[in-house]
């Protein structure tokens, strides 16, 4: 069986968050999903679009977390914790968060995207011009960079696509230059 079939069997062909039965898709839970059944969930278009776009969140839709937060499946628990954290200013999500328990490993996974932190606590990555960088952005190098541990030089003007952010240091991002994955300092890149 493929991943979609495994997730449909696990969920009973329903969204594992709200229970909807239409427009179901696989969602790999970031930041670095293990993939497969242990790192993914089956979600409906409504849930997934609101997970991806914090500005489009309808708090009433997420009252379904009252049930799904008790799921035995880690990816569902992680997404429930993140959405409750995002909505905690509404009042009722804070009550649910207070009842929810995640072991240390799951809590670290849930917090890995910065959800649940106040804006002042979040690490913000900015390029040389002060533009905020996000996971998946594309940047261009503004100077030649010697790649430590290799004889390679990443040339000025090289595009680095689909960067990932270092969640512990605002000056570091990662991306592929040619076949090699490298760490780049943000003051040497400009967002495309």
From TrEMBL:
Gene3D superfamilies: SH3 Domains. Residues 6-52 form the PhnA protein N-terminal proteobacterial domain. InterPro entries: PhnaA_N_proteobac, YjdM_C. Signal peptide: none annotated. It holds the Pfam family YjdM. SMART domains: PhnA_Zn_Ribbon. This is PhnA domain-containing protein.
